Amino acid sequence: MLRKEELPGFDEECVLVKGISLESMPGLTESAVLYIQPCASVQGRVNCELRFGIPRRGAEESFFDFPALSRILNAYSDRFAETRVSSSLGVARVQWRGKKILIFKNGRIVIREAIDEEDAKATIDFLSKLLAPSIICDKCGQVLLNCAAASCRECAVEHASLSSLPSNLLWVGGLQRIRDLVKALIERSSFVKDVKREESITSVEYLSTQSDRIVHLILDLIAYSGNREELAVGILLLKRAWDLGLTLEVLDRIQRYKSKSN
Fold first, then answer.
1. Total-model pTM
2. What is the pLDDT of residues 92-106, one digit of tens each?
3. Residue 108 phi, psi dihedral angles, 5° rounding
4. CB distance 207 to 248 below 8 Å
């Protein structure tokens, strides 16, 4: 889970630095921050309930920014057996590695049918990283996506960066694959010049597909980051990739509009 960890260049009150905490849940004893009990529907399995919060501040009604959370879960949906999100209700449901998981806007998490307590805790660690970009920072009031990019203008002067090469092999290979995909995007983006309209539309679709692949790779890096620097850089890369995706959407609409008008 995201405990307090130093992050060069970032304010110590930013959630990227001070991390998140487990808060007591209404209806349980004040000391209960991780409630684990035997699963009634599947023998030998356990259910787990917890609530993420901000250190020294406690639980919030809006812990996750749900549009951002929804976007993360949908982009990562091929890793889940099921993905359902209701922004109006502020709840999401996913199935991951045999577990049924409910995620609420206020930070409450319910994990059902985990193998054991260790499996439940590993799932908590996975979720705290994967969903980190959608957490609302209590210092600047914006999502951590903006904190990592220094675009919130309160938590950092410069965007996140790595002070050393990542030791995690997933990160080493993932960064190289992202570089290759970005290079391919740049080379293919020549569709803007000297191509037929039909080809330009196909090219935009190709670029959008490659952009989606980049986002998926970045989410892998975020979910399996080994330290706070890697997590922050992963979140920064996600913001950049989503900004690229928005640009491609605009280009796609322009090209289709031109095609129809001619």
1. 0.84
2. 999 999 999 999 999
3. -75, 135
4. yes
